[in-house]
Each structure stands twice: as C-alpha cells, then as structure tokens.
Write a structure and sequence with these properties.
The protein is an all-alpha fold. The protein has eleven helices and no strands. The longest helix has 34 residues. The protein is globular and about 65 Å long.
C-alpha cells in the first residue's frame, strides 16, 4: 500500500502481518486486548489501569502487612538483644529474612516487571540467612573450637534428609573435628555463591532479551536446585549433630525451612501450573500476571504468620545444655 498516494484522509490502523486476519474471541463482553495474549509483564501504568480500584486496595493491604512484619522484626530484635547476646548479630540477619521476602513480594505486586529481581533478592536472602544460622549455632556452642572439644568421640549425623535413603544412607559418619567442620561450613556457604552467580546471569539475560532468559532459565535452575539441596543437607547435619549435645536449634531451623519452601517450592509449583494449563484469557491482562499477583499476596500473608512464629521463638532465652554447663562450672 502506498500511503503517499492515498487520497482518503480517514485515520488508518496499521497492524502487524501476523495479527491481520486473526480473530480474537469475545468472552462475556470483557475487555480483551492484545496485552491479554502477551505473557510479558505489563508496565505499571497499564497494570494500574487494568486493575482499577482493586490495585490500590491490594497495594494498601499488602503495604500494611509489610509494615506489621517490619514492626515485628523490630520487636524481635529487642528480644534478641536481651536473650541472645553472644550471637545477636547472626540472629538479626536470620530474622531479617521475613521482612526482606515480604518487601520483595510487595515490590513485585506493584511493579510486575520487577518479579525476576524480586525473586533473586528473596532467594539470595534465604541463602544468606542459612549461612548465618549455621554461624549462630556455632556461636551458641561457644565457637568452632569449643564445639570440637565438647563433641569428643561423637560423629556427624550425615544420614539426614535429603540424603537419608539409598544410596545416600551409605554416607560415612566421621568424627567431629576442625577439618570436617570446615566442609560442613563450605556446603552451606556455596549456596550463596552459586545462587548469586546464577541469578546475576539470569538478570543479564533478562535485560538483553526476555525470550533468551525464559529459554536459559530451564538450564540454570537445576544447578540452583542441586546447590540448595546440598546446603539444606549441610544444615540438617549441623542441627542433628548439635542436638545430640543437648542444644535445641530445631524450631529455629524449621522457621527458616518454611521460608525456603515458600520461596522455592511454592513458587516453582505455581509457575509449573501456569505453564501446564491453558488458562483462558478473559481480562485485559495475561492470566500469568494475575497468578503472580495472587502468589505474592499469599507470600506476604505467609511471611506475617512466620514472623509471629519467629518472634515467639526468639523471645525466650536459649537453653544451655548440661554438657556446656559442666564445662563452665569446671572452668570456674
């Protein structure tokens, strides 16, 4: 078509070749646009216009819950300074996991295109909290050297989840010493390095081309999954071993484990559900956008519940085992 030779001055709409001739279904007189069939996250302006008044209600409720979570974090820090003096710095980072994950979900609710960055922040914060939880256990035991001296003729409990069945039940159980303690530390520390590098690469691919990110994430996620399982195994080994000495880090570990399940397993399940089923497009946004909105809203509610649980856990003084008490009495 020669636009310069056309004498008609009526406005014309130019469409891409793959759009011309394609019939868009009319479903219950809903506003069905091309953005509904685009699985890419919309910008904030179109996202706000599509949700209407529901956007402000959702944002206000989510922001209120995040404010409550941050308030609980402040109250938890006050209890930590009172009862957890020797490992208060590590505990402060561990309990900061809940407000960081909740704030990341709030940003993902308001800015849909930031969901990859918010996911990376939440996952990396979980890995950092896992390592500081390990350091908190060591500080509670009196340090690495004190732990080695206390655990004379005691072996590591290596046959724990997720390596508790064949063929992993054949893993040896060496005696606790400084060298083995370093290996347990490295098994947990590697999660922060592996996930940091993998999410850095995915963010670079996301900035270059979204389709390239979607194709490459399928190959990068298995590395992160193996790294996470290896780190969880290292934490399980540490927790089950110190429990034989009389310490009780189980409830604190369960709180971190719950956040890890929410950030990893729950997210992957929701993503796989949206990918397996063909959800009809009856609104002005792609169904995956609404799924992410609901999912991040649920995560904020879950973080509120876990924050209440965390406050209850750290509001009391940790019990001292009989072995450590005897050691202190002997030194006195």
């Amino acid at each position: 078509m020669n636009l310069l030779s056309e004498g008609n001055s009526e406005p014309r709409i130019l469409s891409a070749r793959h759009v011309i001739g394609k019939s868009w279904p009319e479903m219950n007189k809903a506003e069905t646009t091309l953005s509904c069939y685009d699985n890419l996250a919309p910008d904030v302006g179109y996202y706000n216009a599509a949700l209407g008044n529901y956007a402000w209600v959702t944002w206000a409720c989510a922001a209120l819950m995040v404010a409550v979570i941050c308030t609980l974090y402040v109250y938890t820090l006050r209890e930590v300074r009172q009862h957890w003096g020797k490992c208060s710095s590590n505990v402060a980072i561990v309990v900061a996991l809940n407000p960081v994950v909740a704030a990341s979900s709030l940003v993902a609710i308001i800015v849909p295109r930031a969901f990859v960055l918010c996911e990376a922040v939440s996952m990396q914060m979980v890995m950092i909290a896992m390592y500081h939880f390990f350091c908190m256990i060591l500080a509670e035991c009196g340090g690495p050297e004190q732990l080695v001296r206390m655990s004379d003729n005691i072996s590591w409990k290596t046959r724990v989840p997720p390596c508790c069945c064949l063929p992993f039940c054949l893993i040896p159980q060496p005696l606790i010493n400084t060298r083995n303690l370093s290996w347990v530390r490295y098994s947990i520390l590697q999660t922060t390095i592996v996930h940091g590098l993998s999410y850095f690469l995915m963010l670079v691919l996301w900035a270059e081309d979204v389709s390239l990110y979607l194709d490459s994430s399928k190959f990068l996620q298995p590395f992160g999954g193996v790294s996470t399982l290896f780190g969880i195994w290292g934490l399980f080994v540490c927790v089950k071993t110190v429990e034989t000495l009389g310490f009780q880090p189980g409830p604190r570990f369960n709180a971190i484990h719950a956040v890890l399940i929410v950030v990893t397993l729950q997210y992957q399940m929701v993503k796989s559900v949206t990918g397996l089923f063909n959800i009809p497009c009856v609104l002005s946004l792609h169904p995956a956008v609404y799924v992410n909105l609901v999912q991040n809203s649920i995560i904020i509610v879950e973080m509120l519940v876990i924050s209440l649980w965390t406050y209850r856990i750290y509001s009391c003084e940790p019990g001292k085992p009989a072995v450590l008490q005897d050691t202190l009495v002997t030194r006195g």
